[in-house]
Amino acid sequence: MSETKPAVSLRYSLNLEESQDGFALATFGKKQLTRFITPLVSIGIIVWGFYLGFNGVGRYYVALGAFFLILQLIMRYWFLPMMFKRQFVKYQFGKSEQGIELFQDYVEIYANGRKQIFNYSEVQNFATGKLTYMIELKNRTVIIVPKRAFEQSADQTVFENTFKK
């Protein structure tokens, strides 16, 4: 990589599916195991209720665990996607061009007509989704890069190897 010319230069506009994939990476956990912690706790409460006995106080634990589990399912699979879609359409995120350029010592991000520069040491987390890559900085800034933005597989390989630790 050289200082004057970026090793990888991408320009893209996110569509709704890519935005949702990046949002899921950023919010529901970067690892598959963390996505299932809260539902497992709810199932544990239900099992504890059956262990205590359904005739006694255990039925309240079963009801509480079932309530939490249903609430989590509604939030994860209906409410959050619906709210995300409304915000995406309302603020027209898909119509704004974004970009990222990788240099030897730093990265330049282009969004909403502004340029932001950060060093590679500021990257806290890097995750790969079905449609996107998610880069999280130490200041909690999240950058979503669609996989379709890469014209060459060599650029995609350089991109992945740059952010993997």
UniProtKB/TrEMBL annotation:
Transmembrane segments: 36-54, 60-80
Residue ranges of domain YcxB-like C-terminal in the record: 105-156
Domain of life: Bacteria
Keywords: Membrane, Transmembrane, Transmembrane helix
Protein name (Swiss-Prot/TrEMBL): YcxB family protein
Species: Acinetobacter terrae
